[in-house]
Amino acid sequence: MFGLNFFGSNKSIVGLDIGSNSIKAVELQRNRGEVVVSHLGMELLASDIVVDSMIVDSGSVASAISKIFAEHAFKAKQVATSVSGHSVIVKKISMQTMDEPELGDAVRNEAAQYIPFDMNDVNVDYQVLSDSLAGGREEGQNPELYQRPATLWAATGDRRHRRICPAELLRIQL
């Protein structure tokens, strides 16, 4: 599950944008309760490296990322990036209140209603947006009837793998 507190226990994180023409990176640091930009970097890509939002040459992308980290003195090893394209679905859903193990299964079942792909080929993730309960809390009402807003994320395995593979080659924590 991804976290809204994107820093986690770390003091810095790198935002990485892998585009068709370039790779851009920005390192953010927490400093006395504020978030500041500590490093920026960009590396241009040849036109055949990323085509239609798909990484064609993972090695070249990994080399470009490595060059950005080295030349611009990035220190963070935790990286946030995105997956985009036609085979990516992001949807706001409401889920019943339940334990975390049950919630994962319930989200996958809910996702099957919206995903036009074979569920065996899809990576599904989610984030509960609020721990406060929606749906009107009345005395004596069954707590299992409470609804919590969540964001559902799904992408075909191949798209996710092509996006994450260069980072894994560099041993960067996504």
In short:
The protein has 174 residues and is of the alpha+beta class. It has 3 helices and 9 strands; from the N terminus they run βββββαββαββα.
Textual characterization of the structure:
- The strands form three sheets. Strands 3-2-1-6 form a four-stranded mixed β-sheet, covered by helices on one side. A three-stranded antiparallel β-sheet has the order 7-9-8. A two-stranded antiparallel sheet has the order 4-5.
- Helices cover 22% and strands 34% of the residues.
- With 174 residues, the protein is of the alpha+beta class.
- The model has no long low-confidence stretch (mean pLDDT 77).
- It folds into two domains: 12-81, Nucleotidyltransferase, domain 5; 88-157, 2-Layer Sandwich (Dna Ligase, domain 1).
**Which ranges are low-confidence, i.e. pLDDT below 50, for 5 or more consecutive residues?**
none
Shape: flat
Tell me what portion of residues adopts beta-strand conformation: 25-35%
Overall mean confidence score, pLDDT: 77
Number of helices: 3
CATH architecture of the largest domain: 2-Layer Sandwich
Oligomer: single chain
- Work out the count of structural domains: 2
Order of helices and strands: EEEEEHEEHEEH
Helical content stands at 10-25%
Going by CATH, the homologous superfamily of the largest domain would be ATPase, nucleotide binding domain
- Lateral arrangement of strands in the main beta sheet: 3-2-1-6
Rg to the nearest angstrom?
A: 19 Å
